[in-house]
Amino acid sequence: MTDILVAKDKWDDIRLPTWVSPSHYALDMETNLKDFTFEGKVHITIDVKKKTKFIVIHQALKSIEFIDLVSADGSLVKYSHIVHKPEYEYSIIYFKKKISKGQYLLSLGFTGELATNMAGYYLSTYKINSVEHFLATTQFEPTKARYAFPSFDEPDKKAVFDITMTTSTQYHAISNMPVKDIIHAGEYQTFVFESTVKMSTYLVAFIVSEFESISSQTNNGVKISVYTAPGQTKLGEYALKVGVPILEYYQKVYGIDFPLPKLDMVAVPDFSAGAMENWGLVTYRDTALLYDPKTSTPANKQRVATVIAHELAHQWFGNLVTMKWWNDLWLNEGFAEFMEYKAVQAAEPTWNMTDQFIPLDLVRALRADESLFTHSIALPVKDPAEISNIFDDISYGKGSSILRMLEAWMDEKYGKEVFFGKLHNYLLEHAYSNAETEQLWEALRTDQDIGSFMSTW
C-alpha cells in the first residue's frame, strides 16, 4: 500500500495543471456486491508538455495500492512521495527527479467502498417478493468520477476509455460501449467492452446488476435497449417505443449520426436527479423511464418522453461537444432543454409540445430570474459545491429560452434553415472536443455580431 501524506504543498489550486493531459485510460474494475466494495487498476496514457517534478491527479478513494510511471522507452520513473489534498480531492505524486516532456504510462491500483449517497460509484437496492437485491451503478457528473477511479476529472481532459468489469456470475455488467468479450473464471466473469470514443470522465458509466432488457433499433441500425429490475421490462416498452423516433429525429435535425453502436437506458431504483446522459448508457430515476398504461397518468407519460428527449439531446450537446469548464454548463443543459420540446413534438405530434414551452420553461425562467440570487447563464465557478449549485432554472430554463428567442429571430430574418445549419457546423467543428459560449456565438454569426447582444443575458 502506498503511503499518502495529507499536507499543504506548492500546488494549491483547485484546478489541475494544464501541462499534463490524458489520452487513454485502461480501467479494470472488480465489484463485490457481498461486502459492497470495489478494487481496480487504471493505466493512463498521459502527455507531459513541460518538465515537471510532480503530477496532480484526482482521487477520493479508500486507498491507493500502488503507483507506477513508465516512460515511452519503457523505463520506470521513481517517485518520492505523495501529498493528498482532501479539500481539492486530488493527490500530488512527486518524483525523485524532474520528468521530461513526452508520453508516459501512469498506473495506479486502488480500493473503494460503494457509496450510499447516490454519487460516484454507489449501491442501489430494490425488492422482489420482499427479498432485497443489490446493484452497483454510477453518477459521475459533475465531479465524482474521482470517487470511482483515479482520473483527470475535468471536462476538457477528454480521452478514450477501455473498460473491463469483473463480478460474480450472479451479475452482469454494462458500460458506455457494447461488450466485446466475456471471460469466465470459476465463480467470476469479466466483461470486456469495446473502446469508447474520446470523451469526458463525467460521462463514463458502468453498472453491475441482475437487470433484464428489451431492445429495438433505429432506421440506421443503432441498438436501443431499456434495462429494468427483473419482471419490469413491460414497463419500459413505452420508453423504448418513444426513444427510437427521438434518436432518429436528432440524427436528422443535427445532420450527424449518433456515433456509438448502441444506446442503453436504465431505470435505477435509487437516483438523485431525473436522469443522467452518460454516453451510450443513460441512467434514469425509475419514475422517469417506466410507464404503466394501466396505472400511470398522461402527465407521467409526457414526463417519460420529455426526460428521454432531454437526455438524448445531450448525446450531441454535452457529449459530442462539451463545455470547456462548468461555467458554461448552460451550453449542455440549455440546449437539451430547448431541444426536448422539438423531439417530443416529432415523436408525439398530437401533444403539441412546442406550445407547452412557455408555461413549462419560460415562466419558470422568468421567476428564477426575478430572484435576488439570480445569475447570468454563464458565470465563474470553481469548486464542486459551486458547480452543483448552477444546475438550476437559469442554466436550464433561461438557457433554453434565449436559444428559442434566438432561433425565432434568425428564422424570421434569415430563413428557417440557417439556425440549425450553423448548429450543424458548430457540432462538426468541436466534435469530440470542448467549446465555450463565445465559440457558439461565433458559429451563429451572420451579418450580425450575435455575441455582442446575446452576451447581455
TrEMBL record:
Positions annotated as active site in the UniProt record: 311 (proton acceptor)
CC per GO annotation: cytoplasm; extracellular space; membrane
One Pfam family in the UniProt entry: Peptidase_M1
Subcellular location: Membrane
Membrane topology listed for this record: Single-pass type II membrane protein
Family statement: Belongs to the peptidase M1 family.
Protein name per the record: Uncharacterized protein
